[in-house]
Specification:
Layout lengths: L7 H4 L2 E2 L2 H6 L9 E6 L3 H12 L3 E6 L2 H10 L4 E5 L1 E2 L2 E2 H10 L6 E6 L3 H10 L3 E5 L1 E2 H19 L3 E4 L2 E4 L4 E4 L2 E3 L3 H12 L5 E2 H8 L10 H13 L8 E4 L3 E4 L12
Parallel strand pairs: 1-9, 2-3, 2-4, 4-7, 7-8
Antiparallel strand pairs: 5-6, 10-11, 11-12, 12-13, 14-16, 15-16
Amino acid sequence: MESRQLPHHRRQQVAYQPRLWRRRRAFAHLDCVRVLIVEDDPELAGLLRDGLREHRIDPTVATTFAAGQARAQAGDYDVIILDVRLPGGTGFDLCAQLRRNAVDTPVLMLTALDAVDDRVRGLTAGADDYLTKPFAFRELVARLQALARRRALAVTPAILRVADLEMDVGARVVRRAGRPIALTAKEFALLELLLRHSGQVVDRGAITAHIWDDNHDPFANVLEVLVRRLRSKIDDGFEPKLILTVRGAGYRIEGTAGKAGRALP
């Protein structure tokens, strides 16, 4: 899909750069984020839907106030994208109604560039963030991923466990078989990431995006060094080995070694 398929005023609302996106896929959220798009314009909604799919984001579109309310209350979404103007009501009223109905899904409001009152009204109604039109699509994706991560952290237990390994996220304490293990900040971040996705393969790009900033050299071997250091602390001298290397894919942590992974030195 190319932005030239849209009318000029729609092309101006979204800076769509699909080739750039593909180079940035490693920075996508680890799991498939489910997003509800409540937008009455079918062309803009289609652009949002197709673009988000390139980022492993699973979009659902509702085009009216009533449809948006029904889907938001019935579905388990990570984030809701909510436009201000909708058939049957406003985005502000819908956001406030969802909050009254105990729907706590993060809401990202789309507002006009100069509508300060709209932004204030949206936040007052219960929105978590806003984005003004026109916007760059990569900024939309970054904001969605940030909201989804915050929600995941809010619903994830503060104590993470695999086998006899335990992490108290709030106290930043790690123990294996009851023995305290001292970790550096990056070692702790890597272990927390793996524990939050226990049993799943976490790819290299997702790990480097989580632990290092955009200036990190993806071809350097610092990730392998970090993994070796972490293994030396939580696996050496213990059984079973928890951190597994999945060749060509990434790393996985689990209580028992599976066929698809090996605890490599």
